[in-house]
Amino acid sequence: MMGRLLLLGGLIYGLFFVGLATLSGGLLALALPLAVYLAAALLYAPEPPRLRIVRELSAERIMPGAAVEVKLSLRNEGRQLEEVLVEDILPQALDCTDGEVSKVVVLPPDQAVELTYSVKGPRGRYEFKHTRVTASDHLGVFRRQVTLASPGAFIVLPEVLRMRQVAIRPLRTRASAGLIPARLGGPGIEFFGVREYQSGDSLRWINWRVTARQPRRIFTNEFEQERIADVGLILDARLRSDVRWQGASLFEHSVRATAALAEVFLRDANRVALLVYGSGLNWVFPGYGHVQRERIMQALARAQTGESEVFESLEYLPTRLFPARSQIVLVSPLADDDLPMLVRLRARGYELLVISPDPVAFENGALPAQPDVALAGRIARLERAVMLRRLRQTGAQIVDWRVDQPFDRAVLTSLGRVPRLVRAGRPG
Amino acid sequence: MLGYIIWGAIILAGLIPAAGYALNGLWPIALGAAALTGLWLVDYGRRWGKAAALAFPCFVVAAAAGVNLTWGASWAPAGLVVAIAAWDLDRFAGRLRVVGVTDETADLQRRHLMRLLLVSVLGLALAWIALGIRIELSFALILLLGFLAVIGLSVAVRSLARESD
Prior knowledge:
The complex is a heterodimer. By secondary structure, chain A is an alpha/beta fold. Chain A contains 10 helices and 19 strands.
């Protein structure tokens, strides 16, 4: 635009100068149409636009695949603007699915122009910041550009996969009744043991078979109490753990799995916390119910992979954030050097469930079928199998999840029955 | 509609100086103008948006160089005005392409074309009138006018450019 003014000025200047120098009236006359054009542009040259801007969003949080309607209204509080280009600056990764994000209009005083459009995007938090307004004369020679603040934000929540109960058995449970076996005798459904009858026990639960063997003593069945528990979810957001391939990201699968787990644990009335471990620590304090669900979903919507020298390995995982002997659920593809920290977690008495999206299968599926690729894939699979076996030997529960398979089926297959090692000989 | 007008303006912007030079037997310049028109047309068709900045000053120079040839006083101002119109419409079409067609597009086009037509007619009329006037100036007055023109234009362009951005 600036170039147009200089070009026009240069041509007029040149024609005048050469016309005077050569005493050619024709050249001076030829400068006149250009001068008229410049004068017409100058006559309608815009003042700095004075606009009041209002942004309205149809929703502040949406599910994946849904669209948000954005309505941007600009009212002219100054003089007439002959040609105004209004461009809303969209946050990255958002797609406009309907309507227009920019418009050229004539804007008289006290009149408003509206931009209405719909946007869709993948999981994340999207913040609108500015709208660019370029006012110019009709001929486009002079222009005034301003960037107006037009804040607005919305969140695209992660997809929540529906799944049934996840079988966990933390060493310590909380006092309230829930669905997690508490390793304590009492009212419940699952048979827990036999003890001597005490006054007040229901006659229905007397174990006649054992009583018949013991003269003058009566024995009654005891059931395992079911309570709620503390569950700490850890989402591995380290950049080195992520595998990206042709727009797909393994981290997105981890986020979806974490969302599904948070949903199921909160639905079962447990107290759930979330730690996103990546470039920093994003910690959602433990809580219950719908409010906590919302907090966790918003944190997951914002979760991004990142890099940090401090959090490059799991070495600095702040375990003190989680109550002692509680259930920790780590969602991570796992790296070779993560094993020692996980072993230490087990040694400190945490019950550990590792949901591990398989990075080898994820990447191998997209690689060409060549002998050397197949060999490399086989070696990587073997290394991963060895690491998972070592981890399993510590008593951790592991879900080795090929992300091309449904998550709930992978969990059901791996955790349908609680491993014997975990059930054996734990104090109640 | 606007598209046809732009095609027409670009073709005329090249055709007029090409015909003017051809009438005077200056075929290389006529062919050059025609080639430049072809380049501009291809550029506009492909929406590159580059050729106008090259073709427009070339056509202005062509008009300036041809104003003193036979029939130059007739075709040179006309060619210049059509070149201005083509250059202007090329930019306007580019801006409309950025935003796409909206409800306001037709109104905007109508207003722009009206204003451009007015400016073109006024410019052409003034140029033709000016070409018919003969004024004798003394050397000192020419020097003074030249000095004032140089200073005035420099100051004006500099201040306008500063204000505009």
